[in-house]
UniProtKB/TrEMBL annotation:
<keyword id="KW-0408">Iron</keyword>
<dbReference type="GO" id="GO:0009279">
    <property type="term" value="C:cell outer membrane"/>
</dbReference>
<protein>
    <submittedName>
        <fullName>TonB-dependent receptor</fullName>
    </submittedName>
</protein>
<feature type="short sequence motif" description="TonB box">
    <location>
        <begin position="37"/>
        <end position="43"/>
    </location>
</feature>
<feature type="signal peptide">
    <location>
        <begin position="1"/>
        <end position="27"/>
    </location>
</feature>
<keyword id="KW-0998">Cell outer membrane</keyword>
<dbReference type="InterPro" id="IPR012910">
    <property type="entry name" value="Plug_dom"/>
</dbReference>
<keyword id="KW-0813">Transport</keyword>
<dbReference type="InterPro" id="IPR039426">
    <property type="entry name" value="TonB-dep_rcpt-like"/>
</dbReference>
<feature type="domain" description="TonB-dependent receptor plug">
    <location>
        <begin position="49"/>
        <end position="157"/>
    </location>
</feature>
<keyword id="KW-0406">Ion transport</keyword>
<dbReference type="InterPro" id="IPR010916">
    <property type="entry name" value="TonB_box_CS"/>
</dbReference>
<keyword id="KW-0675">Receptor</keyword>
<keyword id="KW-0472">Membrane</keyword>
<dbReference type="Pfam" id="PF00593">
    <property type="entry name" value="TonB_dep_Rec_b-barrel"/>
</dbReference>
<comment type="similarity">
    <text>Belongs to the TonB-dependent receptor family.</text>
</comment>
<keyword id="KW-0732">Signal</keyword>
Length: 838
């Protein structure tokens, strides 16, 4: 809080100075903008967008500012085919391109869409999502980009470039106020530190906001009545050293921290278990007939506190040699998230995770990339090497609440009212005193330590066959080794499950419920977090992947205005280990739900073969860009992380295909100051028709032949920006942007209640300021029309059954008793921003 107050005060002073120092000079009329000004680095060298045989959506600094983009999540409104969602915390933010991405909260699963910030690869999407500071541009590269950007880019890359230090003095300040009591401030300064050799840039920002959601806490212990708030600050410092005309060195150091409460879920459908939750807790629950999830009322007695820290330093050196240029990028980064969670998403005290230092994920990553590039009359060549050393510490806790034993007992007694009059069915089954089999505050504490080392060699070369015809070939060899040490503990030894697993325990249960039901009863008494067979269990696993990936592209320029290309790319995403408790499908002699721990939790690498045809057109004196491409992608061993109601499990799906069309349009209109930008993606992204292997109970029976979750068939975006003089020394600027997505399912199991209907999000901004931008005032709104939509829907843990089974392989709504929860998209926000620039 103190940091925010100081920063707000500093920014206020700078803004006021800017208001007083506004220049009265007329703004200089700029030359007519053309497509030639759009430069990208999709092939690790600067090129005009229209010369690159890759589908790239490039967004410059001004449009990023106009549309209020502070982090990568905000970028979705400008990029068709890009979907970004957050679930249980901001740390679990994931991106998808053309309907393909990584699902769920499992740190052992790497990203399908890579995030690169200032040349430094981020190991997971959640690690790369935060306030990015002063951005130069963002490029979204669609399709596999593994040849140049490395592993875990099988679906695409989000390439972010921030502004570097300048040798001319400059300063900026910004103050923002909005609804939900939002307030934010940022300030930056850049300039020379030593003659024309050393320059620096410093950026600081802080943002706070009340929560979007109201929270009913019941009997607590949490008393926090809001969720999805914001409390964030960041600092980024840079040095640019140019010792001579042949070498440049850039150092970037940054630190950011979040202390927030995110993310509570609302109920979108209330099942019959809601009555049991109310009975054991004495607390109100949503009523299916009247509750509107978009009233934004979450039910949570434990809260969802989260602390996220991200810090790192990088050094980039660029040296001109007689035969080419050498680039070196060295970086070390550390990212940690500590979370708490009400894991049953209700006011009953069933299960929870505690933010007590024993529930966190921490990545420490060192990366080194070397590139040597050169060119001749006929060839552009590039060779390089990449090294990464990643250490992951994952600590997990999961505890029984005060109502766990009563709730589980009522579920197993098959009656919400328990007409037999048994006060505690678990005590009866196990012949133990009440609330001692699953005592409140007991549960699991697990440790997962993973180390991954990666070494890669790559080349990407272009042969200029003629002035119009080029062939590009790229190849990458990656060797990756992962080691995992696991130690799992039940704080009470798993006494309830352990009692049930004894011969005497099984016999007693059979005498009460019958032999046919014994397996199912024991399976529920030995859910992963309660399973005594995990207690004191340590494992060591290791896997090595050695894979080739690459690309071949042919391009032909029919004229200075028309560029065409065809490409093939082979992408690769590393295998890994499931960092959660995993049980067999049949571990009891009597059959039923299995409880035997699985030793080998590894899953194989994912591969994609991608084909693309593209046409890039530059029209009307190079003021119009119209690009269109068709694509076909086939994934094998697709890594699907799915929540089974009790744990996350990574499954290898034999086949996924994605085919469709991308289109981009940009028009610098004859009306001075008016720019129109739009894009369109049609993506038919489906699972293969093969049955899902290793799917006990047919939990994923709806997947074969169906569209992937979070994969809209159609998405389109558009932005209109207009800037015009006002009087002699002022100007106004208007921007409106919109993103449409067709309907899609938000759940990895594709149950129909999780479908999100088509929706459109609209953002708008109106600004007025001095012509030299010394001061600017802006009114803005995000989600202007207050569109209501879900990000992700999921099954309430231990709250009903879908009805799917070994015999019931199709969805039947009459058999579905699940309570469904969802994380919602942000509501309408609006406010005022004041800017000053020197």
């Amino acid at each position: 809080m103190r940091f925010t107050q100081v920063l707000c005060g500093t920014a206020s002073a700078v803004v006021l100075v800017g208001l007083g120092a506004s220049s009265a000079a007329q703004a200089q009329e700029s030359d007519v903008q053309t497509v030639d000004s759009i430069i990208v680095t999709a092939q690790k060298r600067e090129q005009n967008l229209q010369d690159v045989p890759v589908v790239v959506t490039a967004v410059g600094a001004k449009l990023l500012q106009d549309t209020g983009v502070k982090d990568i999540k905000d970028l979705t409104i400008l990029t068709p085919g890009l979907t970004v969602t957050s679930t249980s915390s901001e740390a679990s933010t994931t991106a998808r391109v053309r309907g393909v991405g990584t699902v769920g909260d499992n740190p052992g699963l790497e990203s399908s869409v890579g995030v690169v910030i200032d040349g430094v690869y981020r190991p997971r999407n959640g690690v790369g999502f935060g306030d990015l500071g002063e951005m130069e541009r963002i490029e979204v590269l669609k399709g596999p980009q593994g040849t140049l950007f490395g592993k875990n880019t099988s679906a695409g890359v989000i390439n972010v470039m921030t502004k570097e230090p300048e040798f001319g003095f400059g300063a900026n300040a910004e103050l923002t106020f909005g609804n939900y009591d939002a307030k934010g401030a940022s300030a930056s300064v850049t300039g020379p530190l030593f003659e024309d050799k050393l320059a620096g840039r410093l950026y600081v920002a802080a943002r706070q906001r009340d929560g979007y959601n109201d929270v009913v806490t019941g009997a607590g212990p949490s008393k926090r009545d809001q969720d999805a708030d914001q409390n964030f600050y960041t600092v980024r410092g840079q040095l640019l050293f140019i010792p001579d005309d042949k070498s440049t060195f850039r150092v970037i150091a940054d630190y950011s921290r979040r202390d927030e409460n995110c993310c509570g879920a609302v109920q979108i459908r209330t099942g019959p278990t809601s009555a049991i939750l109310a009975a054991v807790s004495g607390q109100a629950t949503p009523v299916a007939a009247t509750a509107d999830p978009f009233d934004r009322v979450a039910y949570s007695n434990r809260g969802a506190p989260a602390k996220i820290e991200d810090k790192g330093i990088s050094l980039q050196g660029d040296i001109d040699l007689p035969f080419g240029s050498l680039t070196s990028i060295s970086a070390i980064r550390n990212w940690r998230t500590d979370n708490g969670q009400d894991s049953d998403f209700s006011t009953a005290d069933i299960t929870y995770r505690n933010k007590d230092g024993s529930n966190y994920s921490e990545f420490t990553t060192y990366t080194q990339e070397l590139r040597l590039a050169g060119r001749s009359d006929k060839f552009d060549w590039l060779v390089g090497a990449f090294l990464a050393d990643e250490r992951l510490e994952n600590r997990a806790n999961f505890y029984f609440g005060n109502h766990y034993e009563q709730y589980l007992g009522r579920l197993l007694s098959r009656s919400a009212t328990n007409p037999a009059g048994v006060a505690n069915f678990i005590a009866l089954l196990l012949n133990r005193a009440p609330n001692t089999s699953f005592a409140p505050g007991q549960g699991l504490r697990d440790r997962y330590d993973q180390r991954a080392t990666t070494v890669a060699l790559f080349t990407n070369d272009t042969w200029h066959v003629t002035d119009a015809f080029e062939i590009t070939a790229g190849l990458r060899y990656t060797s990756e080794k992962k080691k995992l040490d696991t130690y799992q503990t039940n704080t009470d030894g798993g006494v309830g499950c352990g009692t049930a697993l004894t011969p005497a325990g099984q016999a007693r249960i059979a005498s009460i419920v019958g032999a046919a039901n014994t397996g199912t009863i024991i399976g529920n008494l030995c859910l992963p977090w309660a399973n005594a067979l995990f207690n004191g269990r340590g494992t060591k696993q290791e896997r090595t992947d050695k894979e080739w990936s690459g690309t071949v592209k042919a391009s032909y320029r029919f004229s200075p205005e028309v560029f065409s290309y065809a490409s093939f790319a082979r992408g690769y995403k590393g295998g890994g280990f499931n960092l959660d408790r995993t049980q067999s499908s049949n571990g009891l002699p009597s059959g039923g739900t299995g409880v035997t721990p699985i030793y080998d939790t590894s899953f194989p690498a994912e591969f994609v073969d991608s084909y693309e045809l593209g046409l890039k057109n530059t029209l009307f004196n190079r003021t119009v860009l119209l690009n269109i491409s068709g694509f076909y992608q086939k994934f094998t061993d697709f890594q699907l992380n799915t929540f089974l109601g009790t744990s996350f499990v990574v499954r290898s799906i034999p086949e996924v295909t994605s085919k469709g069309v991308d289109a981009d349009f940009l028009w610098f209109t004859p009306v001075r100051g008016l720019t129109v930008q739009s894009g369109f993606t049609y993506a038919e992204t489906k699972y293969g028709d093969q049955p899902i292997p290793n799917d006990p109970g047919n939990a994923l029976a709806l997947l074969p032949g169906s569209r992937l979750s979070l994969a809209p068939k159609y998405s389109t975006s558009g932005s209109l920006t207009y800037e015009t003089p006002v009087g002699d020394n002022m100007k106004a600027r208007f921007n409106i942007g919109a993103k449409y997505s067709s309907s899609y399912n938000t759940g990895s199991d594709l149950f129909p209640p999780k479908v999100q209907k088509s929706y459109t999000v609209v953002n708008g901004r109106v600004g007025l300021g001095s012509a030299d931008e010394r001061w600017t005032m802006e009114l803005w709104a995000q989600n202007l029309l207050n569109e209501k939509y879900m990000q992700v829907a999921f099954n309430g843990p231990l709250q009903g059954s879908s009805g799917l089974s070994a015999t019931q392989k199709t969805y039947n709504a009459a058999l579905d008793t699940i309570t469904y929860d969802a994380f919602l998209g942000a509501p309408r926000t609006y406010g005022l921003t004041l800017r000053s620039k020197f």
